[in-house]
Design goal:
Elements (H helix, E strand, L loop, with lengths): L13 H5 L21 H28 L4 H19 L12 E10 L4 E6 L6 E8 L4 E6 L2 E2 L18 E3 L3 E3 L3 E8 L5 E7 L2 E10 L1
Antiparallel strand pairs: 1-10, 2-9, 3-8, 3-10, 4-5, 4-9, 6-7
Length: about 210
């Protein structure tokens, strides 16, 4: 009986055969992955810090409202803000570039609670235009009464620009609060007439009034 041998030939791929007699082609590189910065880890601590600060402010104003008195550190921060407001307002110029010579009528830090706080003052001087501004770390509202009626709902143009710098305060154990809330009124009164300022809100707030001569 005859035996047959079967020989299998393995042929090189065409690309390899084409390279015979030349240099070996470089291996094909895998696509490179471009690394992207993961900002989620950075955002989370910032969000946590903001939430923690908001909770601390809530606790502060709730305690002030309950006691009916301002926290010493909070009061000092608002008094510093009022000093800056006084400096900024006295340096204001009119549209013609001339000094407005705004005169301070009253400024104070007051504790707020469930009921509005009423402050009566008499405006003395030759001017009739009065600007009343309030500031706080939580929402506040303001009304100015002449007699028994609200004088106006017109906001003062200086509401957000009264300070020499950013409208912010630095609270002990809490840190910088750069979202100070504010409300204002611009009213016209007779020289020497009394007005009543009613401030509503929670916690400690600052009030200041100026007369435009």
């Amino acid at each position: 009986m005859r035996s047959f041998a079967i020989v299998l030939l393995t042929l090189a791929p065409p690309a390899t055969l084409a390279a015979c007699g030349g240099s070996t082609p470089p291996p094909v590189e895998a696509p490179k992955t471009v690394a992207t910065a993961d900002t989620s880890a950075a955002k989370k601590p910032a969000q946590d810090d903001k939430a923690s600060k908001a909770a601390s402010i809530d606790a502060l104003v709730a305690d002030e409202a309950k006691k009916g008195a301002c926290d010493d550190g909070h009061k000092a921060a608002l008094e510093k803000l009022l000093a800056d407001v006084e400096t900024g307002m006295k340096a204001k110029n009119g549209d013609d570039g001339k000094p407005l010579n705004l005169q301070l009528v009253s400024k104070r830090v007051i504790p707020l609670g469930s009921a509005a706080k009423s402050i009566e003052m008499t405006v003395t001087g030759k001017g009739t235009e009065v600007h009343v501004l309030t500031f706080g770390v939580r929402d506040i509202s303001l009304d100015v009464l002449v007699g028994n009626a609200a004088a106006t709902t017109l906001r003062s143009p200086f509401q957000r620009s009264a300070t020499t710098g950013a409208l912010a305060i630095d609270l002990p154990k809490i840190g910088n609060v750069d979202e100070v809330q504010t409300d204002s009124r611009q009213v016209t009164v007779k020289p020497g007439s009394p007005i009543v300022v009613k401030v509503s809100g929670q916690g400690c707030a600052a009030m200041v009034a100026f007369l435009k001569p």
